Amino acid sequence: xxxxxxxxxxxxxxxxxxxxxxxxxxxxxxxxxxxxxxxxxxxxxxxxxxxxxxxxxxxxxxxxxxxxxxxxxxxxxxxxxxxxxxxxxxxxxxxxxxxxxxxxxxxxxxxxxxxxxxxxxxxxxxxxxxxxxxxxxxxxxxxxxxxxxxxxxxxxxxxxxxxxxxxxxxxxxxxxxxxxxxxxxxxxxxxxxxxxxxxxxxxxxxxxxxxxxxxxxxxxxxxxxxxxxxxxxxxxxxxxxxxxxxxxxxxxxxxxxxxxxxxxxxxxxxxxxxxxxx
Length: 278
Description:
52% helix, 6-stranded mixed beta sheet, 6 strands
């Protein structure tokens, strides 16, 4: 489908930049649609066919059907309606991920028990089936970290509040932080803690992630998670702004060895609380 869309654009004599400008989207989105690295909606097909003045109704219908079918190809679709499926698609294709978390341990580094407690707190009206499904999806996403052929390069800066917030219970927290330390020893995983006493920092406005791709035609994407909808920023100026913020966070946070010592200390506090019945 991507190849067909590229052919239609080239027949029209338009560049990806011109198409992006006419549809008021990023040029990287057009490139991703054409190289098959981004899911395409029927609305995307409709807008592109209108832009390319495609008069063959059978071709348009064929592309619309292909768009509908293509949205069922990701492994996450087997779990039903996943609210952040677009993000999972990006994450699945990314070569590296930089994430700042101010409230919880990053999803790719969560234990099943911690993930269950986090998700249960986030959707208190969810059914047991919905909760189990989301936990399964989160665990499945973590396979990118352990992929022996092309593991995701993960760099996480985590605020102290995420380490101290009692999610589940003290035992769950102690086990989660011990697991976080173990994962930080993986060669492609870097974890830095940002203690309270380091003062204010650029990430105080909230969590954000920066996804980068190996294909040079794919620009980086900044992901901002929302309650009812998510935001994906692909403009170069936006990506540069968040990248600069992240560099400041990395510089301000504890280094890797200091971070392990700090997390181990907080984990011991949770373990003592568990032993004392708190």
